[in-house]
Amino acid sequence: MQYIDDSLEGKKILITGGAGFIGSNLALYFQKYHKAEVVIFDSFRSEKTFSNGHFKSLGHFKNLLDFKGEVIVGDITSKEDLERLESFNFDYIFHQAAISDTTVMNQEAVLRANVNAYKDLLDLCVRSNARMIYASSAGVYGNSHAPNSIGDGEIPENVYGFSKLMMDNLTQKYLQRYPELKIVGLRYFNVYGENEVHKGKTASMILQLSLQALRQKKVRLFKMGEQKRDFVYIQDVVQANVKAMESKKSGVYNVGSGNARSFNAIVACLKMDLGEFAVEYIDNPYTFFQTHTEANIVLTKEFLGYTPRFSLEVGVKNYLPSIKAIHASGVWSEIVQE
Ligand SMILES: NC(=O)c1ccc[n+]([C@@H]2O[C@H](COP(=O)([O-])OP(=O)(O)OC[C@H]3O[C@@H](n4cnc5c(N)ncnc54)[C@H](O)[C@@H]3O)[C@@H](O)[C@H]2O)c1
Fold first, then answer.
1. C-alpha neighbours within 13 Å on the C-beta side of residue 246
2. Whole domain around residue 242: which residue ranges?
């Protein structure tokens, strides 16, 4: 029988962006392991798209088929929609809602959704004394030298990374103004895992390459596949969020595996399970492309007690059965270009 922790009994948890990849994993984690009231606030997918053709909000009801809590449809950029959250008096807010697509160039839209809305949610925390745990990003480091450390080389290369840096700066201002407030920002690196298929072309490279291999027996990599990223499995990201609930020290922390791995390394992991397939190396069309990211997680370990449990090999092995199910169902068609 599943062990249920009752330490959060009677507590109210808000997850903004709870219909998305990381938010839905958090919601389902709390439902499975804790007695707490979980409320999701998300704008869900509409038919609206950005000029890059991607959906304006990526949340999908299929991520929440097993969710038993309350779902509120709303836009974090609408003060009227946010008012619906006022009467709950949340104990914890996990703020995941954002324009998560790093290729959106509309600066006004990205900053409004990612920065202004965060300020409104911080004000809600001040009023209700909720603890805020929010999603920042490795995007704040742009193409700075790795390993990436808090307070060093924070030079974002796109408006998405800039928006997350502005959230982190705002956090420091609020902590100075309201010393009793508890805020933890988590700079996620490259997250992969269950419930990301709805992100389409912005889903992780682990999913994209797996589906290419399954579908076409061939994957495409930018020359020569040696660019490195810190790939972190969703279960480690959930762990970091849960640890942040008890952190005595507010602040901003890196959340990665602590190791940089290449795209060729993903291919090697996939071949262990899927067998042989071809690799085609193509020219990289992007003028901006990170060549090496790697989370320095010394402070995350010390102050949050976070210990990543999934190497790339273990994470991919754990994830592949779900990817094979996605492939069998045909939902992959948005991701794999034929
Ligand atoms: N996945 C990663 O690798 C990664 C890395 C770094 C940071 N992050 C951050 O983590 C958070 C979650 O990312 P994700 O990968 O789960 O992305 P996601 O797009 O799957 O989730 C974001 C959710 O926010 C919702 N949303 C978007 N705009 C909204 C609005 N105006 N009002 C209400 N809801 C809105 C979407 O519908 C979606 O469900 C984001 O803040 C993202 O920037 C993710």
1. 10
2. 12-200+231-258+290-310
